[in-house]
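ENTRY TYPE: protein
WANTED: fold as tokens:
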Amino acid sequence: MSVQVVDYVAMVDHGSVVAPYRQIAAILRARIESGEYAPGQRLPGIHDLMGEYGVAHLTANKALRLLVAEGRAELSRGRGFYVRDSSEN
């Protein structure tokens, strides 16, 4: 299932069949692909995502961890989530 983000003023649609964490991950993924978040740049933290999208801690955490699982981000324990350099394979 793919979610296309057309506008960066994207909001989570809680009535959607797409889980909120997948919607947030899609928004962040689009921002990474557009260059808004550059390799090595820190992504918004869990609390930032909670405030911006009105979601629970677990939802924000799952969105960021999905990007890690996809290889688009990496977790630096105690520091946060960072955009992974796509040339690192």
